[in-house]
């Protein structure tokens, strides 16, 4: 086994992977050009377009349906294929529209909580937020991963959960100034270049929004389900809906949603004040199950900052028990026994 600074290693892999992605991007461009022509012809009242069919230059008129079937076949042939993660049984994304709503807090507590409730299961946690990794602090982990004989990074481990994060590969405080293909390549490396096997469940703590990371997962990884984390406010729900729409379009099943900071617990008197919630826009309008709600509680954030997730002290803390209840619902939905 060999130890090494992994930043150069990642960069090399990232660059080689970039070439492949560039090819697939070029193809996507061609496809959208064809789409554009398709919609143009529709716009002008035609329902068929001429397409070059052979190298001899013969053309054949295609109906709209034939054109769509052809586009679908091309996309299926050339876009990255969704593949399972080696040695991982279930992949669960923890996602949100906005940042700061508690995705990382939820992801960490779900992973640690699942390990506590099902000690025989192998649970892993990937921090896919390459720009703002939270996992090292929240899981109280630091240091660079080792490489195994297959050149895969060995996850760091705490509380029985295997973890990987960009935060282990770049020094704390150093900004990651990547975009587009670089991000997608880094994600590919964090997913495929890590020795996750064996893992019964791999939780993925996603960055906010519907950007490159979300697209990478939706296009290239077999995902078993997504959990949407949101706060009660209209602006957060509005962005959560966009995330839901993206998952629906890319055929990622939605396990349910978690309403975080649904109320405020006063740290001096313990009284609870509810925050006006618009969660029904997810639960009623989009039929997404509410897996649970959590108040804004100082104990939760202190536990995060100390790298000791609150679910570890569930006998003492109500919020820890709430996380356990959510874990049980998720294991039920994923058929983990
Ligand atoms: N229920 C909660 N009660 C109190 N603080 C919380 C709660 N959920 C999250 N936080 C705190 O809010 C901050 C942002 O949470 P984080 O999980 O990093 O959000 P995200 O990953 O969505 O950006 C963190 O400091 C975390 O400790
Ligand atoms: Mg986060």
TrEMBL record:
Q: What is this protein called?
A: Iron-sulfur protein NUBPL
Could you list the residue ranges that cross the membrane? none
Fetch the InterPro entries from UniProt. Mrp/NBP35_ATP-bd, NUBPL-like, P-loop_NTPase, YlxH/NBP35
* Sequence similarity: Belongs to the Mrp/NBP35 ATP-binding proteins family.
Which UniProt keywords are listed? 4Fe-4S, ATP-binding, Iron, Iron-sulfur, Metal-binding, Nucleotide-binding
Signal sequence annotation: none
> Out of the domains of life, which is the source?
Eukaryota
Identify the SUPFAM superfamilies for this entry.
P-loop containing nucleoside triphosphate hydrolases
| Pfam families (UniProt xref) | ParA
Organism source for this protein?
A: Orchesella dallaii
């Amino acid at each position: 086994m060999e130890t090494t600074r992994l930043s150069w290693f990642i960069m090399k892999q990232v660059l080689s992977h970039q070439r492949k992605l560039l090819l697939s991007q070029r193809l996507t461009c061609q496809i959208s050009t064809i789409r554009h022509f398709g919609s143009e012809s529709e716009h002008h009242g035609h329902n068929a377009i001429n397409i070059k069919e052979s190298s001899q230059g013969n053309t054949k008129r295609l109906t709209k349906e034939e054109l769509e079937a052809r586009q679908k076949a091309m996309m299926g042939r050339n876009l990255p294929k969704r593949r399972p993660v080696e040695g991982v049984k279930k992949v669960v994304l923890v996602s949100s529209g906005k940042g700061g709503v508690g995705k990382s807090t939820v992801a960490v507590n779900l992973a640690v909580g699942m390990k506590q409730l099902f000690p025989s299961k192998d649970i892993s946690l990937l921090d896919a937020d390459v720009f703002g990794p939270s996992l090292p602090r929240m899981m109280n982990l630091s240091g660079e991963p080792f490489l195994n004989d297959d050149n895969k990074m060995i996850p760091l481990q705490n509380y029985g959960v295997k973890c990987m994060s960009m935060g282990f590969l770049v020094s704390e405080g150093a900004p990651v100034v990547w975009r587009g293909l670089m991000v997608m390549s880094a994600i590919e490396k964090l997913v495929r270049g890590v020795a996750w096997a064996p893992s019964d469940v791999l939780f993925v703590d996603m960055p906010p929004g519907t950007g490159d990371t979300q697209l990478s997962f939706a296009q290239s990884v077999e995902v078993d389900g997504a959990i949407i984390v949101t706060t009660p406010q209209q602006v957060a729900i509005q962005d959560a809906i966009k995330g839901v729409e993206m998952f629906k379009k890319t055929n990622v099943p939605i396990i349910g949603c978690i309403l975080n900071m649904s109320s405020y617990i006063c740290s001096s008197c313990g009284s609870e004040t509810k925050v006006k919630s618009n969660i029904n826009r997810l639960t009623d309008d989009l039929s997404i199950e509410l897996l649970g709600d959590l108040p804004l509680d100082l104990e939760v954030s202190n536990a995060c900052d100390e790298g000791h997730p609150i679910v570890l002290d569930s006998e003492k803390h109500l919020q820890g028990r709430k996380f356990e209840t959510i874990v049980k619902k998720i294991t039920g939905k994923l058929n983990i026994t």
